[in-house]
Specification:
The chain is an all-alpha fold. The protein is built from nine helices and no strands. Helix 2 runs parallel beside helix 4, helix 4 runs antiparallel to helix 5 and helix 7 runs antiparallel to helix 8. The longest helix has 36 residues. It is elongated and about 70 Å long. The termini are far apart.
Amino acid sequence: PAAQSSRVRAALASTFSQARRRRRWSLFLAGVSVVHLGCSSFRQPSETVIKVETTRNTDKAQRLTHMGIVAFHKQHVVLATKKFREAIAADDEYGPAHNNLGRLSYEEGDLYQAVMAFERARELMPEDPAVLYNLGLALESAGRTAEALDLYYTANSMDPTDPAFLGNLVRLRIRQGDRDELLQSQLRDLI
């Protein structure tokens, strides 16, 4: 009887083990099927899993920025400021709106706002030398001449054909007392 009892236990253990292996195999196959078929097999054909909405309206930002530039050229500073801010509200990632708001702020003497706007424009348009140049002007006016000089150098190296970039680079170097051969060469390039 003891031997028979141990054989029954062994047979039950074997059966239980086989059932467990079959259950694991079934779960494995179900997992592979889900991975293979994807989650789409569990939803209705008309269901949407993720819905992404954006509030960026680049066309509107372009139009508003253009309107701001026109107003700025007509000396309508309040209207220009309003249009640039509306452009940024329409598309916060539209760099020209930030750059033009910075230019307006710089012209109005608000160096803090100018630097903030130019910094944001630089994030959005890192390859635009005019943005670096504008930021350099604002930083120089704020007394941060070392940073301004670096920005003038960078803007000039990005676009050596723009005389404003080289002119302000040379002007600031002279103000700082530089008199090296490179400065002499840069002065000749301006003439």
